[in-house]
Amino acid sequence: MQDQIKEYIEDKLIADHQTELQMNDDLLTSGLVDSMGVMKLVTFLEDAFDITIPPEDMIIEHFLNIEAIANFVETKK
Amino acid sequence: MTYLLHQNIKHHAITTPNHIAFKSGGREITYSSFHEITNQLAQAFIHRGLQKGDRVGICLNRNIESAIAVHGILKAGGVFVPIDPDSPQSRFIYMIDSCEIKHLVTEQAVTKKLDISARADVLSLYGVDSAEMNGLSWEDVKSLPVEQPNLELLGSDLAYIMFTSGTTGNPKGIMHTHYSGLSYAKMSADQYELNNNDVIANHSPLHFDMSTLGYLTAPYVGATCIIIPKLYSAMPASMSQLIETEQISIWYSVPLMLQQMLERGALEQRNLDSLRWILFGGEPFPLKHLNRIINLMPHAQFSNVYGPAEVNQCSYFNFSKPIVDHDSLPLGFIWENTNALVLTNDNQQVRPKEIGELLIHSPTMMQGYWNDAELTEGAYYHSKHDSVIEKKYYKTGDLVYYDENGLLFFVGRKDRQVKIRGHRVELNSIEEVLLAMPQVNSAATFVAETEAEKFIVAVLCSKKKLEIENVKQSINNQLPKYALPQEFIFLDELPRTNAGKIDYKLLKAQVKDDARSN
């Protein structure tokens, strides 16, 4: 799952495709993903893993890095 | 006497050394450490040849380092130039070249995206550990002497250059001195009675003028400034959580952030009692959204902050109850130590209710536009109107009027006033009418042109599906015929600049692209 998320962020959300993300790369302060990106990412997670993410789950802790996103998705399955 | 923007930091470092100066993304720095590291950064610049008045770029995300960069540069006598880390490469290069920037404070996350090596021969980097690009890491900076450089700096020295987003042509560099920047810091502190117990939430990226409250006013009064990272904009529930956990007392953002918290921020679950002031500005706040927020925050005072980046702030409208007696939110009153003129096209003062352009004379006024004498001269109006001394007024380009009680109201941008079949139309007032429809969440209008004619396009966002016929019906009797939009487009969301304002340029391009692909 982590690889799938990583691939999506790298291919679809980061403008320059050279950047390789690490599982614990800080998405919060790095500015790598913007707010439009987060919206796209949520839609992707909902579709790819068949989950629903309500607004109250859209919190920083769940999106800090790839690892955190994967852990969060697990809890929603 | 305080006459420099960074001057009070030393005082706070002595009197309240352990008080938090800046906090961001889980990290924080006390006034004592902030004073020390900004001194060390200043030493680094000077050691590497920085001369008084040299421009220094700051290309950082919203983090503690961005605040250290601002005050480190000022302490070295430099002029800070914020550069949006999300800039396209061409704009980044344009700013480096036009300001002849030789020193750049940045970070790895930025150098991964922007090709800084394109200017590697001129640039000295700070904040990154890179031997080939002449980088000095924060570890290196921390090994330098902690004494503040002893320089002769004046209030009239240049302090920063802020570039406008530049909807047309090249971006304009707005020059502020220590005097104009500090005048804003003093006047905003005075207006909202800010003190060192305050926790000020800064939402704006450094390159956006609304950041001056957090980056400049907060350290002036010795308050704590929370620099909110960009990702929070997409997470209103975290944003509202932050108000509670950080006990934020002063909030300052564009309307969009507050609207998002209202819609998806679980505000009713939060304890918002710490909020003393909700300041907002940057663009008009639709009353129906604003009034709902006021009801959720009964303890807070609200202020509509207005002023182009060229003058920082020039007016305020304070209130704490929902606005029911006006159709739109007033700009309110011109603040202290500031003169306003409202003039018609032939430079006559307007009568009540008559629309004219707002002109401002104030100590917070810019010094001019960087490297552009012609543009600078064109920006001012000279008047001996109410004094024997000739005064320079900044022409805001905003159309306003006074109501019969002397309250100032915003009508629209002069350059958003368009002529349709000979009639003068304010695009803003059309947006106001559209927004008044209960189903419409946000609205934007612009003028499109075919070879034969000009016409108005309305772009609407609503939660529920809207029928064009219904929209037409409900606005038909509220607007003159020539002001009725001829084309309606429905979008999920309006494109925004990364400061959170509606991005009209992008919107037009998007709509054009969609039309082509259909």
Describe the 3D structure.
The complex is a heterodimer of chains A (77) and B (518). With 77 residues, chain A is mainly α. Chain A has a single domain, classed as Non-ribosomal Peptide Synthetase Peptidyl Carrier Protein, Chain A. Chain A is 55% helix and 0% strand. Chain A has helices at residues 2-13, 35-49, 60-63, 66-76. The two termini of chain A are 12 Å apart. Chain B has 518 residues and is α/β, with parallel strands linked by helices. Chain B contains 15 helices and 27 strands. In chain B, helix 2 crosses helix 3 (64-75). Chain B is globular. The mean pLDDT of chain B is 92. At the A-B interface, helix 2 and helix 3 of A face helix 9 of B.
Assign the CATH architecture of the largest domain in chain B.
Answer: 3-Layer(aba) Sandwich
Q: Give the CATH superfamily of chain A.
A: ACP-like
CATH class of chain A: Mainly Alpha
Give me the Rg of chain A, rounded.
11 Å
Count of the domains of chain B: 3
* Low-confidence segments of chain A: none
Helix and strand succession of chain A? Answer: HHHH
Q: Tell me roughly what share of residues is in helical segments of chain A.
A: 40-55%
**Describe the biggest sheet of chain B?**
9 strands, mixed
Helix-and-strand structural type of chain A? mainly alpha
Predict the CATH topology of the largest domain in chain B. Rossmann fold
Number of helices of chain B: 15
Return the CATH topology of chain A. Non-ribosomal Peptide Synthetase Peptidyl Carrier Protein, Chain A
Which class of secondary structure composition applies to the elements of chain B? alpha/beta
Task: Count all strands of chain A and give the number.
Answer: 0
Regions of chain B with pLDDT < 50 over 5+ consecutive residues? none
- Spatial strand arrangement across the major sheet of chain B: 2-1-11-10-12-13-14-15-16
Report helical residue fraction of chain B: 25-40%
Span of the ends, CA to CA of chain A: 12 Å
